[in-house]
Give the backbone structure.
Amino acid sequence: MKQLEKTYKLLEFNKILENIASFASLSYAKELLMQTKPFKDINKLNAEFDLVEQTLTVEETGKCNVNFGFEDIRIFLQKAKLSSLLSMSEILKVSKMIKSTLMTKNSIMILCDDTTPDLKELVFGISNQKKLQNEIERCIISETEVNDNASKELSKIRKEIRNKSDQIKKQINKFITSKVYADCLQDNIVTIRNDRYVLPVKAEYRSFIQGLIHDKSTSGQTLYIEPMTIVELNNDLKTLHLDEEAAIQKILYSLTLEISINADQIESDYEKMTKLDMLFAKVHYAKANKAVRPIINKKGIINIENGRHPLINPQKVVPTTTYIGETFNILIITGPNTGGKTVALKLVGLFVIMAMSGIYVGAKYANISMFDNVFCDIGDEQSIEQNLSTFSSHISNIKYIIDNINEQSLVLLDELGAGTDPKEGSALALSVVDYLDKHKVKALITTHYNELKEYALVRPNFQNASMEFNHNTYEPTFNLLVGSPGFSNALFIASKLGLKQEIIDNARKKMDKVDIETEDLLQSIEKMRSDLNSKQKKIDQILINNLDKQNEIEKELKNIKKTKEDLQNQAENFKTKYIKNKLIEVDEIIDTIKELANNPTPQNLFKARDLKSKLKKIDDNEQISSNEKTNKAKNSFHVFNVGDDVYVKSINQEGTIIEKLKKDKFQINFGNFAGAFDISDLTPLIQKKPDFDQKVKNTANYRHIFSGRAIQIELNLIGLTVAESQVVLEQYLSDAYASKYQQVKIIHGYGTGKLRNTVEEILSKSKIVASYREGKFGEGGKGVTIVNFI
């Protein structure tokens, strides 16, 4: 057996491959997965991992519709290329493969993006054989039937066959329906023998019907006779069936030819589908085992955090953390029998082989180096699934390993030096590890020899590790402790299990004094470590609990913030909707006033005054609603703090908050005086451009127009836009006319002339304006317009 194959067997890598292959659908994919070997090129290995990771990304969308439910069609493609006619069944299998391939391609391409470039490239390379698929499906109905319309020739022949069959049935039915032959026939049915229509005639009436005998029943009582009257018709039908078969052969030949022309591309598509099946198998294996993508290096570094052996029951497996290659090259593992040393050894070797083969490993984190070789001398042929280990050592294996190692080798030795005299065995073991160290090999070695533990304590490239032992249950925990040398616990276990203390004490006397002191020291260190570990776990749990509480608080704060934002949005939406409705109402009133102004009858003037009162009521209500309700609701969301600059609406002053008094009350300093004000009266000082309503309200004329007070003799439009001035001017003219003014002055300034032109346009169209002119010297000149009413 080759060394590599032996390593695979000892590490049970083949069982991992069997597990992965079970997730594949295609037989060829299963075959290739079982032949998986480690990559030698790190770039190719990382490319494989990229494909697996990208496949996982697509698969986890839950929308990936892949179909590998077709047979291996490579042999059919080879037949087609050799001009060997394919059967209907074989052609349909090619069509099914094409259909599945296109469906898979379309599904994956939709899900691919910039994060899955390699998978996208792989799938994009699948050719479009839709035309061939459609042609096959058009021609072939099933594995035994060709469509009538597959060719014009076949369609014509089958039509003739149906006609000929009808003629035969018509002739033969004369025998069945005739009273003359009623006693001659065994059954009143038409049957077929040797592809020819025949009658079931009773043997004793053979001479009554002239014809050819094609068969007889088992009992001999029935003869199947072809009447002479239909012999020629049957001959014609037989000829037509031969023509039909020839036409079908032509169709199959045509389809076979099309397949042969595209055979290379179809085979390439099959290879790509096989690769996809293998990738999805690796993905499903990774998900089933909660595996992660290992980081790959070429520095001889192995760092496995909470690694779980994939062949041990997930409910029983103990996660193992192991590292080597950064500060030390050789790890000496000690501990009691059946404590898990061999499992830890196999875990590292198996993870290295899996990682180098592009397979995810079951761990929380894994950084694994590529090696030229992985050598094992584990010495057991038993199943790791049964948690069994043996401790025999094979010097021949060690010789092979020593003869073939280099700096890029990983060596796994189980119970090095065992199976011989302890003194000689320990000396041999020390010599072997010294040789491995000299050649800069990475090695994990299990042993019971104290000499190796002590050797590891003083050598720079060595590190001790041990399998943890529970002193309360007297059982191993299977937890690997790197940096902590182990001990056998034989006397301790014997004492706890009730062996006479006299025997225990006598055994200790027979031990070397140094060994006893060393063992006691190691046990003391181990107990301290165990206590510290227990305390650390408690601290970690406290930290986790605190973190959970912190997360809950942060989550609650987020909920509060969202609620606040929702309330703000609701308030703003309500305000916007309310104002919009009021603006619509105001616009309707203004439009009505304009209409009344166009027909200034006494009745209309009274209506206009009523509408002005309604506008004043809306204006007053909006002042109250805006200041005491909407603004208060809005300000309740704003957090005012001492030192904030605010605007106090009720006294039209700006000040600074110097004290928060009680709920919704603040003490405001205005420089020369201070006072207490409600939150609804405050506005944060944020500079904003005055809106239309504010600009209009800042004009004395607007207040008069909408308050019902006496209308002034002049209107100042300076500062308003063209659109704003139009509304104000039209309302002013109506009110001034209603107040029985004969003449008024409109101040619009010089500027660009747009405002003056707007004024003149409105005046020219007004039915209540008799005339208007430019202001004279002393009246304001071109900056004003004098208006005379009718």
In short: DSSP finds 23 helices and 25 strands in the chain. Confidence is low (pLDDT under 50) at residues 381-392, 626-630, 687-709. Residues 295-509 form a domain with the Rossmann fold fold (CATH 3.40.50.300). Residues 513-598 form the longest helix (86 residues).
